[in-house]
Amino acid sequence: MRKLIYNLSKMAKLSWGIKRAAIATIYKGAILPLLTYGAPVWIDTMQYEHNRQKYIRMQHLINIRMAKAYCATSSEALCILTGISPIIIKLAEVLKRYNIKEKTVSHSFKLDSDVELKYWPHLADAVKIRGSRQ
User: Fold this and answer.
1) CA torsion, points 44, 57, 35, 99, in degrees to nearest 10?
2) Which of 61, 88, 86 lies closest to 4 in space, CA to CA?
3) Hey, is 63 helix, strand or coil?
4) Res. 38: pLDDT tops 50
5) C-alpha–C-alpha distance, residues 123 and 66, integer Å
6) Do residues 81 and 25 lie in contact, with contact meaning Cβ atoms separated by under 8 Å?
7) Which residue of 44, 68, 82, 134 has the lowest C-beta tally within 10 Å?
8) What is the pLDDT of residues 44-101, one digit of tens each?
9) Would you list the domain boundaries of the chain?
């Protein structure tokens, strides 16, 4: 991962190189999936500070290039500047999505089963319209 980010860094300098949007696309499409791959299996290791710091450093490297900032900028500030969630929060999100998916799939009934017409919910009951506040 570090090698991939350093190669990307060669193309994204402070005053020239690929733009922030391109780096964000690369981060969301390639780097983030690599960082979160298999997270439900190894998420327990994130209780140790040294493991969390490895992930924070990886995100820090890419955020520096995305924000076109200096190395001394804190990871929290970089997350705010780039508008990207901290990696630890993203890992927790991946874990929650996995748990929801696993609990839903483990039910014995089919999710897309046919429902008789008389049991269909009425549209007026499904949508709640709130009045505007003035």
Assistant:
1) 40
2) 61
3) helix
4) yes
5) 45
6) no
7) 134
8) 888 899 988 989 998 998 888 888 888 889 999 999 988 899 999 999 999 888 888 8
9) 2-102
